[in-house]
Design a protein that fits this description.
Low-confidence stretches: none
CATH architecture: Up-down Bundle
CATH class: Mainly Alpha
CATH topology: Four Helix Bundle (Hemerythrin (Met), subunit A)
Helix content: 55-70%
Structural class: mainly alpha
CATH superfamily: CDP-alcohol phosphotransferase transmembrane (TM) domain
Mean pLDDT: 87
Largest sheet: none
Number of strands: 0
Oligomer: single chain
Distance between the termini: 58 Å
Length: 296
């Protein structure tokens, strides 16, 4: 029995009251579409925007390779090197994010959507993920920091696995857009880390938290496939009923109050955690705990 994508969206959003991010998102969509129409009139194509976004992310990766562990001059907290490389990386990521959001809008509004364009967009998104975390890994390799090399590799693995599980699952089910750490959230986390000079703290976060999105997507896809094979009701993609479900804030979709709370917590961690624990800034006695554990 075929199941439409819209039905899966209803399942995700069931019981999810709107939050402030939904209002912001609606205003942002209007701005994005207006800019997309101007780009269409100027002769811009979706594929050009996609490639331009990759180049911007590559620039961010180069900046991170130079100074992923640097603090920004205007927010010096823990001890460590100071520089503008994270800020430049953040500016590149802002431009890359704009291209990433506009290419789809230009394709849709300009009636220029192609199947190859969709493939190109997905492939270059993966290259963009690689550019960010490979840049971080190179920086800490040059510093000889084993811990943060590993964290960067794990973060890259999670970024690739989250997208792969979704792509592979959607060969069998209409939609697998579940879990908090989608690409937009991951890029936003790195961007905030760049703006605050707390990229090392982001690497801890991205090396651990997104693993649960991988597990959730895999589990959800398995339950949906079983339900479809048995012609049973589809399992809940969003919050589950009862008080336990209400406590699982990460199960709520984008634009909900619960989503806003989880997002606020993640932002607070990036901004504040490194100020209280210097190890999250790759500085101090525990700057490289894995090397100490291995006796290096």
């Amino acid at each position: 029995m075929p199941v439409e994508r819209a039905e899966f969206r209803k399942l995700r959003e069931a019981g999810a009251p709107p939050g402030i991010s939904r209002a912001i998102g609606l205003r942002f969509v209007a701005w994005r579409d207006a800019l997309a129409r101007k780009l269409i009139r100027a002769g811009m194509t979706p594929n050009r925007l996609t490639v331009l976004g990759l180049l911007m992310t590559a620039g961010a990766g180069c900046c991170l390779a130079v100074g992923a562990s640097q603090q920004v001059p205007y927010l010096q907290g823990a001890a460590g090197p100071v520089g503008w490389s994270p800020v430049l990386a953040g500016l590149f990521l802002v431009l890359a994010g704009a291209c990433d959001m506009l290419d789809g809008a230009v394709a849709r509004l300009g009636n220029m959507s192609t199947r190859f364009g969709q493939i190109l967009d997905s492939v270059l998104d993966r290259f963009s993920d690689m550019a960010i975390y490979v840049g971080c890994a190179l920086h800490f390799t040059w510093q000889g920091n084993v811990t943060y090399q590993l964290l960067a590799v794990l973060a890259l693995c999670h970024a690739c696995l989250i997208s792969y599980v979704k792509a592979r699952s959607e060969n069998l089910i209409p939609d697998c857009s579940v879990g908090y750490w989608m690409r937009g959230e991951r890029i936003a986390a790195v961007l905030i880390g760049c703006a605050t000079g707390h990229v090392p703290a982001v690497l801890w976060q991205q090396a651990i938290s997104p693993f649960f999105t991988v597990v959730r997507r895999l589990s959800y896809a398995g339950r949906v496939v079983q339900a479809m094979d048995r012609h049973e009701a589809l399992p809940a993609a969003g919050p589950v009923p009862g008080w336990r479900g209400r406590l699982q804030l990460w199960r709520y979709p984008r634009g909900s109050i619960s989503y806003d709370l989880v997002t606020g917590f993640n932002i607070a961690y990036i901004v504040l955690a490194a100020r209280f624990w210097p190890a999250l800034q790759a500085s101090g006695y525990w700057a490289d705990p894995l090397a100490r554990l291995l006796g290096r």
